Amino acid sequence: QVWALLSTAVEDNYIAGKDDVSIGRGLVLLPLLQQCLEDTTDQASSSSSGGASSGATSLRLSLRAAAGQCLVVIHESRMQLGLQEENQIGSRNGGDDDDGDGTKQNADGSDAGGVSIGVSNLNQYENPSHNDAKFQQGSWESTEWEIIIDEMSARIAELAVESSHHISKKAKKELRAIFREYQTTLIDNELPTPEVVHFRGGSLELTTWKEIVQLDFIRHALQGGFQAQLLTNGTLQLIFGLSANIVSQQANYGQGYSQLEKRLLLSKTSEASKMADQERIKKRRQRHNVKNHFLTVDGEDI
């Protein structure tokens, strides 16, 4: 999970690319990720000890989920490199073709004006249908990693329907849903299900695995303070591409704030109110000491 998070801060070529000088770090990790996905020590422990502990089994399943997450991030970067290459070829060929009747056409023969996927960020197309938002180019075919990718994709498909008797039904359902998402990206080359974050004044839609990995980590770190930080933290707004103007529209001291935002930012129990109270107490104590200074001995407060 840490590797997946760190990979969101580097270019796709450093993750899934290869040239005469360097190779993407994600490609180097593929054998290790396969080992994590194929881990069957829980079954071995169950047969030898009469049943593995639920805690150990949950840890192994979490390891598999983390390995799957790294794999889809690598796959997404690989597909992105294909998109970039396609766009570069299109630029060298003079862009879109005209079919003679005034209608522009893309390289695949379809009319231009449909879904437009950006080079640097897959979610920068305008109002696409989610089902149409597939990676258009980029492939593992005829590469040295084709076999291992196929094997891991098959393993992900198995985990999407696998049942374990050592975890709760809720955890089993969540893990199956996670691996089904991975399977959709790896086999069908589709974007993950969009993650929508609602906040006062608008909403934020995240449509790539890199963005979702960032969101999951920040939510876990901030817990209940995520909404407040999203409204006030410029760094967080920069990470998710939020306009500070949109977020600051609600800054008229409570006008338009939701109940949660009022409780976090404006209530008497908020962090800001606590700090203000401490400052008032400090100043009151200082005034009291100055007022009663004549009662002290040798200038020292009683």
Keywords:
globular, two-stranded antiparallel sheet, 5% strand, Interferon-related developmental regulator N-terminal domain-containing protein, 55% helix, 302 residues, IFRD, mainly alpha
Summarize this, please?
The protein has 302 residues and is mainly alpha-helical. 55% of the residues lie in helices and 5% in strands.
Task: Report on the architecture of this protein.
This protein has helices at residues 2-7, 12-16, 25-37, 41-49, 54-92, 146-159, 169-188, 209-222, 226-232, 234-239, 244-247, 259-265, 271-291, and strands at 97-98, 104-105, 195-199, 202-206. The protein is mostly helical. It has a two-stranded antiparallel ribbon with strand order 1-2. A two-stranded antiparallel ribbon has the order 3-4. Mean pLDDT is 73; it is low at 44-52, 102-137 and 250-254.
Rg (C-alpha, Å): 27 Å
Computed structural class: mainly alpha
| SSE string, helices as H and strands as E | HHHHHEEHHEEHHHHHH
Largest sheet composition: 2 strands, antiparallel
**Proportion of β residues?**
under 5%
Number of domains: 2
Shape: globular
Region (Disordered): 85-137
InterPro entries: IFRD
Protein name: Interferon-related developmental regulator N-terminal domain-containing protein
Biased composition (Polar residues): 118-137
